Each structure stands twice: as structure tokens, then as C-alpha cells.
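Lab notebook, bench 4. The sequencing result for the construct came back, and we need a structural model before the next group meeting so we can plan mutations. Quick request posted to the team channel:

Model the 3D structure of this chain.
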Amino acid sequence: MDDELEIARSEILSSMLDFLHRNDLADYDDFSIALVNKLLQAKDIPSMSVPQVLRLMEGLNTLFFRVNGISRKWFAQLFCLEMGPTVTPKLGGLRRLNDIALQDIFPEMEAVTEEAATRKECEIQCEERKIQTAIRKVLRHKHAQPIPRRNADTPLEVADIEIFRMRVSNRWLRFAIVVKGYRSSPGKTLKWKDVAHQVARAYQRGSPDYVLLFAGKDPADGLVTSLEEYSSSVGRRGLVIFVPPIDLVRLLIANKLL
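Done. Here's the predicted structure in C-alpha cell form:
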């Protein structure tokens, strides 16, 4: 994904420089780089419009407009006219990894209410292996690959469900899954020390785009923050996606496994 982002950055910057040259505009203060970075940070915009481009340029402290003798509005109009058809498709097809949410991966969850899931939450207080098996069925149904059958854990285990690829938001991403069942950790809540080794191993041994942590027990205060701190420490903010019991139940209900 980092490679894809850099390719998009290079392609848009190249188009931007051509655009400036074509219109006899000096690229003062590295304006092109600053605007391309702004575009990439706001790449969820559905289309290019003058108000959107003006908002993107609000925080740019530059002499670009004064040096070229143009107004921001004039530039935004010309940019949308000439660059919009090139930039919009690239931005529409690009999305940061750390913008992906659980519902992007499993959109079927949205059809299950929290109330419906609450009534069945006790059903995941079972053997951890049953949850792993159910999640494997969900992944096979979504055409994730490879999702092999596994009979027993071994000392070489990297994650409960090791590296696999799955199409999400029209792109292939790599995942690993750690499952922490209701009975597999002491205490009433799940703590960072209960999952730290498994999460770290899942990432260090395979470098997936995401580690999904499915929990059969609610998190202790600070667990989600600790997961985010770990993600940041390896330079991958948003790496670990925590799936609490209620969302695990919603997923299983949506796939007719509860």
C-alpha cells in the first residue's frame, strides 16, 4: 500500500508540474508538492470542485499566488478544469490503510443491530477453537485466500489465522487474525499483556497490512490505546483493528453462524 501511495503521489505531481508549465506558472515555494500532499490527505472527496480546492489551499502559506500574479479562486477554477479529470479518478481509487474500518472489511455487519447481538453475546463464551472455525467460514465465504483447515496449534504458529489476502474496497489487502476467547485470559476484561505477544508476533513474522484482534471478552481500560500505541511504534498507525465481543457476534449473526 505504501508503494501504491508513492506511485499515485509521483503521477499526480508529474501531472501537476505539466499543468503549471503549460500555464506559465512558476512553482514557487514548492507549491506543487504542498498541494499534492493536501490532495492525498483529502482523497476521500468525491469530485473536484472550486470550493473544495479553495479549502485545501487555506492552510498553505506561500507566495505562489503573488509571484504569479493570480488569485486563489482563479487558480482553483483552472485547476478543476484542467486537472480534475486526471486527479479525481486517482484520488477516488486510493485510500489510506489507516482509514479502513471494520465495517469496510465486513459490511454485512451493518444489518445486525446491537440489540440483536446483545441477546446472543453469551453464545461466544465458548471454546476459542469454535470462534476460529466460525471466522474461517466467514473468510472463505468472502473468498479470502488462503484459508486452510488446521487441526492443531504448533510451536510455529504465527497467528490464529495466518497471513491471507482479501479484497476490501476494491483492493487486495493482507491480514492476520488473532482470536482471544472468553476463557483464554484471566480476569473479567482483556488486557494488553494478554494479547501483546500474539499481536506482535502476528505482525513481525508476516508484516500484514492489518492484524484483526477478535475478542470474546470486553477490553480493559487502556487496551485499545495500547494497541494504537503499538501500531504507531512500528510505523503503521491503524495496524491493529480491535473487534469487541458485540461486533464479533454481529459478524457471526450476519453470516448465519449464530
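The two ends are 34 Å apart (CA to CA).
Will bring this to the meeting.
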